[in-house]
């Protein structure tokens, strides 16, 4: 009793305080609730944006949600930014969005229908483009048909990523079924321009490639990253290569993201965020919760991504804490 009174007295005098040392607030992983996968990332108007696949049976994948955040910790959901109801040729399996802002418009590239032309009576499918005035949509079909609706160099037309080179040129990098193509987009994104050799689709598949390509530049080098393994299982992972141009050649360096049996499994299909004006990098990716064998049960997570002095990407550590707040300054 005496001790309690003494403590109360000290508190009253302000000589001791109730305050516990505060831990920095983190995003936690997953960073938002719900089954989502294949995030693409962008920064618009001082907000981070993530555009994931809604991870569910194919027939239920008829829309895309988006998420925005001022600091990577607090996320706001923007439901159904794109819906198959507004894309007459898309009816299922809306996958792996890729977002680009250009000329005051927002273009959302998406895969739809899980196109298999070898099946009898297969309807059109492949990679489409939708457009909106706002990153939160509503996005509407831009072309009325797929932008890529054929199998080129063995690549299923899914898992698109839009890469802008230093000269401003936009490229579509895409492909499933273990093949990856790059194609030069027309400035209005209505189609493609032939390359110097007259071809439209150039295959840049590195060893081990399965799907989920992305590309970015750092210190004059082109980093090409992709997913390996099967997305429903525990071994899904991310590897990378470094080249001197968007066309490679890309030689596999190694894996940088994979399961941690103590944290999560099937870590893959990612996006990379560089905080403008800094050399601070993040990786947004999906993984399966520990012990969950349902392939569609995928959640979106965030970690820091680091380079060594030679520019090699360091293995990413999977966490349950996620990342600390990183407000955008400009
Ligand atoms: O989410 C559907 C598919 O799963 C994606 O297109 C693949 O990359 C895999 O993540």
Provide structural commentary.
The N and C termini lie far apart (56 Å). The relative contact order is 0.14. The protein has a single domain, classed as Glycosyl hydrolase domain, family 43 (Tachylectin-2, Chain A). The strands form 5 sheets. Strands 9, 10, 11, 12 and 13 form a 5-stranded antiparallel beta sheet that branches. The chain is mainly beta and 330 residues long. β14 and β15 form a beta hairpin. It has 1 helix and 20 strands. It has one helix spanning 2-13, and strands spanning 36-44, 47-54, 63-69, 76-83, 95-102, 105-112, 126-132, 140-141, 161-164, 170-174, 181-185, 192-193, 202-203, 211-218, 221-228, 237-243, 252-257, 264-274, 281-289, 299-305. It binds beta-L-arabinofuranose. Beta-L-arabinofuranose (FUB) is lined by residues 37-38, 53, 95-96, 158-159, 211-212, 231, 269. Keywords: Carbohydrate metabolism, Glycosidase, Hydrolase, Polysaccharide degradation, Signal, Xylan degradation. One of its GO terms (biological process) is xylan catabolic process. This is Family 43 glycosylhydrolase.
What descriptive keywords fit this protein?
mainly beta; 330 residues; four-stranded antiparallel sheet; binds beta-L-arabinofuranose; Tachylectin-2, Chain A; 4% helix; single chain
Report mean pLDDT, rounded to a whole number.
94
The CATH architecture is 5 Propeller
- Major sheet: 5 strands, antiparallel
Distance between the termini: 56 Å
The domain tally reads: 1
- H/E series, N to C? HEEEEEEEEEEEEEEEEEEEE
Broad shape: globular
Q: At the third CATH level, what is the topology name?
A: Tachylectin-2, Chain A
The CATH C-level class name: Mainly Beta
The percent range for strand residues is: 35-45%
Number of strands: 20
At the fourth level of CATH, the homologous superfamily is Glycosyl hydrolase domain, family 43
Bound molecules: beta-L-arabinofuranose
Radius of gyration: 22 Å
Contiguous uncertain segments of 5+ residues: 1-16
């Amino acid at each position: 009793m005496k001790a309690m009174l003494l403590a109360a007295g000290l508190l009253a005098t302000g000589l001791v305080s109730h305050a516990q040392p505060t831990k920095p607030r983190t995003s936690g992983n997953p960073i938002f609730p719900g089954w989502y996968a294949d995030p693409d990332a962008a920064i618009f108007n001082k907000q981070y944006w993530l555009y994931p696949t809604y991870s569910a049976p194919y027939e239920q994948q008829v829309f895309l949600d988006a998420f925005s955040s001022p600091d990577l910790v607090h996320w706001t959901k923007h439901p159904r930014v794109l819906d198959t109801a507004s894309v007459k040729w898309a009816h299922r399996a809306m996958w792996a969005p890729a977002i680009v802002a250009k000329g005051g418009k927002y273009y959302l590239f998406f895969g739809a229908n899980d196109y298999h032309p070898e099946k009898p009576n297969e309807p059109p499918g492949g990679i489409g483009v939708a457009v909106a005035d706002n990153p939160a949509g509503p996005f509407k079909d831009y072309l009325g048909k797929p932008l890529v609706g054929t199998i080129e160099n063995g690549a299923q037309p899914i898992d698109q990523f839009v890469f802008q080179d230093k000269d401003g040129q936009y490229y579509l990098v895409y492909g499933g079924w273990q093949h990856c193509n790059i194609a030069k987009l027309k400035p209005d994104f209505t189609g493609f321009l032939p390359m110097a050799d007259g071809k439209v689709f150039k295959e840049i598949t590195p060893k081990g490639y399965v799907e989920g390509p992305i590309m970015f530049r750092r210190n004059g080098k082109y980093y090409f990253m992709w997913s390996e393994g099967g997305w429903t299982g525990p071994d899904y992972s991310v590897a990378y290569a470094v080249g001197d141009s968007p066309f490679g050649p890309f030689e596999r360096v190694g894996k940088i993201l994979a399961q941690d049996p103590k944290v999560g499994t099937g870590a893959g299909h990612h996006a990379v965020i560089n905080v403008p004006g800094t050399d601070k990098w993040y990786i947004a990716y999906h993984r399966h919760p520990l012990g969950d064998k349902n392939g569609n049960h995928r959640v979106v997570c965030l970690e820091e991504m680091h380079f060594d002095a030679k520019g090699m990407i360091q293995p990413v550590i999977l966490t349950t804490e996620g990342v600390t707040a990183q407000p955008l300054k400009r």
